[in-house]
Amino acid sequence: MKVYVANGLFSIGDRYVNAAIATALREAIDGITLYVPQENDAINDKEAYASSADIARADLEALKESDVLVAVIDGVEIDSGVAAEIGAFSMLGRPIIALFSDVRQQGTQNTKKIEALQQHAVENQFVYRNLFVVGLIKQRGVIVSTIEEIVEAVKQYN
């Protein structure tokens, strides 16, 4: 099984999450092959040079070869590269597992939060994700909240 792990890779937090996902998947699933873009020094060694075409070519080839996409959709907004990877991968008709760990998912039944939102949209204590991207994920897979749930979801496609 080949899995592509999509997330930002420029901050220490993103690189840490990517490494944690990769470690969890490699420990839990024998024979899994991962493509984690931050591990591809040919295009992501920031001391070296790779053109935009080089990056697109390498990542698209890895997407085409993958059976499952694991995409992290955390952050203020979904990382633009991750959104593009989700869009490209959705065209292949293969499963997408998205990690969304934002704590603002909690409390959706809290009536005070709902009333505040109804009175003033700027009092939104929840979180927004681009609905087109969410729709692509839901057509092909699931959105989970933890790395452990990623592992369980990937196992279903192994």
Automatic annotation (TrEMBL):
Protein keywords: Transferase
- Fetch the InterPro entries from UniProt: 2'-dNMP_N-hydrolase, Nucleoside_deoxyribTrfase
Secretion signal: which residues? none
Q: Keyword Isomerase, does the record have it?
A: no
Q: Does the keyword Transferase apply?
A: yes
Question: One Pfam annotation, family name?
Answer: Nuc_deoxyrib_tr
Q: Which GO terms describe its molecular function?
A: 5-hydroxymethyl-dUMP N-hydrolase activity; transferase activity
GO BP annotation list: deoxyribonucleoside monophosphate catabolic process
Q: What is this protein called?
A: Nucleoside 2-deoxyribosyltransferase
Q: What is the organism field in this record?
A: Caryophanon tenue
